[in-house]
Amino acid sequence: MKVYKFGGASVKNAEGVRNVEKIVRLAGAQDLMVVVSAMGKTTNALERVVELLDAGKEEAALTQWVDIIDFHVAVMKELGLQPGSDIRLQGEIPFDPALPYDENYDQIVSLGELMSTQIVAVYLLKQGLSVEWWNMPKLLRTDDTWREATVDNDTSRAVIRAGWERAQRPSIVVTQGFIGGTADGKRTTLGREGSDYTAALLGNYLDAESVTIWKDVPGILNADPRIEPDTILIPSLRYQDAVELSYSGAQVIHPKTIRPLENKRIPLYVKPFGDPAAQGSCIAENGVGPIDVPVYIWRKNQILITMRAKDFAFVLEESLSEIFEIIHRHRLKVSLIQSSAVTISVSVDNTRFVADAIKELQQHFNVTYNDHLSLLTIRGTTPEILERAKAGRTIMLSQTTRRTARLVVKE
Ligand code: ASP
Ligand code: MG
């Protein structure tokens, strides 16, 4: 069997859904698990609904909600589907002011994938394909770490394998990326852009021959085409290089995607949605490595936090575990670490958890920080490339080895 994952940009409109049909038919329309993200920017729009409701702005939330529903209804109509009869639409917004923000978030934001997958499944069915729609909140079991749930692989694997091995299973299963559910039936989400991760988990559970992520880029490129004009396609890479790229901030694949695939030596293809016959990129055990072109990766929205020992009597190294315990507990995502005798600097994603973490760090250290920063990683750098990258930029911190340069720069 194979797993195909279609991201939000691929299924952003009716034409995208028709293209899914085309790609599925090219694959023989059988033995396929099709994982789909929310359509276009739906996840962002749903996040806004949660924010508005939380702020008590019910009317604005409702307007936003109606826009989201209208958008999906328009796509359905364009595809010849009947909203309400072919596809169930959520009537009320599942918001309970008594619940924590993050729990409400998961109940609401997960609706994007529930809508997109119903549209894709019913559309494929109406085109004569043998399709079943699966509801991941009932199949992919997670804990209740809202917004970043941890998957219970043993339970999920057993349930999903049993479903797949059932005699009467149709040729194609369509299901949601990004979402799961707790033992007591609450929906959860796995972290933004988590659909790739779901595809990898399903590939692992079902011993897939391969997993393919269909994207709006030609494959894995050496730089973001929206930033650098001349990009080069990397046709073949090793798992370890792919992990490093995604950890550095390359947007092509979610960082958690590689491990479940590497564990079972399942190749991961990244292919252009608009040109299914194109070569794309393949990440595999026997991939070509190390990558032999310079690779530029931007990780945006960074904050650089510097801690200085309050009391020079002790060595800062001794406080490392304390610092990282605080960072871990506040769910900060560290992208770079640098230390000197008396200071430690960490660059982290500037999320809503940062302020509390800084407060706690201030109890133990003298803390300074700078925000509105980006981390640029250049792999396969040369002195000339590094000079060019530094030109005209304010560099807050740089870390270079022979082949890799990492620069924290002002945005
Ligand atoms: N729809 C979710 C998001 O936009 C998950 C995904 O696209 O992978 O974050
Ligand atoms: Mg998305």
What does this protein look like?
This protein has 2 domains: 2-216, Carbamate kinase; 295-410, VC0802-like, CATH 3.30.2130.10. With 411 residues, the chain is α/β, with parallel strands linked by helices. The chain is built from 13 helices and 16 strands. The structure holds aspartic acid and magnesium ion.
Quick gist of this model?
With 411 residues, this protein is of the alpha/beta class.
Name the descriptors.
411 residues; alpha/beta; Carbamate kinase; 2 domains; eight-stranded mixed beta sheet; six-stranded antiparallel beta sheet; 13 helices; binds magnesium ion
Helices and strands in order, then pairings?
Blueprint: E1 2-6, H1 14-26, E2 32-36, H2 42-54, H3 58-78, H4 101-109, H5 111-126, E3 131-134, H6 136-139, H7 153-165, E4 172-176, E5 179-181, E6 187-189, H8 195-205, E7 210-215, E8 236-237, H9 239-248, H10 258-263, E9 268-272, E10 281-283, E11 295-309, H11 320-329, E12 334-339, E13 343-349, H12 354-362, E14 365-379, H13 383-390, E15 395-400, E16 404-410
Parallel strand pairs: 1-2, 1-7, 2-4, 3-4, 7-9, 8-10
Antiparallel strand pairs: 5-6, 9-10, 11-13, 11-14, 12-13, 14-16, 15-16
* CATH first level of the largest domain: Alpha Beta
Q: Which ligands, by name, code or SMILES, are bound?
A: aspartic acid, magnesium ion
* Rg over alpha carbons: 23 Å
Can you summarize the main beta sheet? 8 strands, mixed
Model regions low in confidence, pLDDT < 50 over at least 5 residues: none
